[in-house]
Amino acid sequence: MNIKEVAARAGLPAKTIRYYEEIGLIRPLRAANGYRSFRESDLHKLAFLARARGLGFSIEDCRALLALYEDRARASSDVKALAESHLARIAEKIAELRGMEATLGALVRACAGDARPDCPILTGIAGKDCCG
Amino acid sequence: MNIKEVAARAGLPAKTIRYYEEIGLIRPLRAANGYRSFRESDLHKLAFLARARGLGFSIEDCRALLALYEDRARASSDVKALAESHLARIAEKIAELRGMEATLGALVRACAGDARPDCPILTGIAGKDCCG
DNA sequence: TATGGGGTTTCCCGTGATGGGAAGGTCAAG
DNA sequence: CTTGACCTTCCCATCACGGGAAACCCCATA
Predict the structure, then answer these.
(1) Which of residues 92-111 of B touch A (CB under 8 A)?
(2) What is the C-alpha to C-alpha distance for residues B120 and B30, in angstroms, rounded to an integer?
(3) Could you read off the pLDDT of B109-118 as tens digits, one per residue?
């Protein structure tokens, strides 16, 4: 399989696939003409990576997940620990964003949004009572 | 005021303040020795920037907000439009993160997390039924 | 056989918003 | 005069790619 087909099937840009090879996440073979030659196992790994990235795992997390995936002697507790720590990061981010949403939402609701210059959003950002 | 004091009072690292000058968000004076010399107005702008960044606005959004803040002839509708568009981006991100949280959370709950290799998290990421 | 068009390769630069750290100038206190 | 804290500029690194150039490869058609 050449890179374009594998890209289509894994749902990843060709650029990303080359990058993943460069950082050692996959090791496709090479044809005589220098083209990358992907096996089914490469495609499988790329699809795994695409899904893990879609769940927000960092590249290094993905590397660890892939290693666990390929290690038949793994303990599921190792996988779960990784996933739980990522879940915690996700929850933190959500909390942070919700804080922003609440603060900014209140300012937006207080703003008339007309042609006049008076703006609670600006005074809110400027004032000491903002972003508590 | 030298940079360290202004950094402490604005709640920003000195590095960040230098960067903000470099990209033209602030224009502090210079003392004879080459040191930056911050006025109260610079401090005020930096505090504004720190809060706007804390609300998740991008640097370019901050530039626009600062311009509006300094423009006495602004229309509050312009500010509100900017803020609402940012609020929408925040909501999108929250939705995306909640999707991840739901999917990954379900996988984590299904995983025994013991010494055995069987792991619904890995098969979930590997399988076609993962990530919507 | 030439030509065209698409696929592929490597290489280098850019992103956003800083952080780290080196090399060197300046200032106030002891 | 020295020490140590502060300041300066400059360059490189982050993270996960994306854009685009220059060159090579393959296949089909005229």
Answers:
(1) 93-94, 97-98, 100-101, 103-105, 107-108, 111
(2) 61
(3) 999 999 999 9
Quickly give B32 CA vs C27 C1' distance in Å: 13
Domains of chain B from N-terminus onward: 1-56 (1.10.1660.10)
Question: Which pLDDT value is given to residue A99?
Answer: 97
Nucleotides of C under 7 A from a protein CB: 7-10, 16-20, 25-27
Q: Which among A47, A48, A111 is the nearest to B79, CB-wise? A: A111
Put simply, the answer to whether B77 touches A114 (Cβ < 8 Å) is yes
Residue of B99, B62, B61 whose CA lies nearest to A94: B99
Over residues A97-126, the pLDDT tens digits come to 999 999 999 999 999 999 999 999 999 999
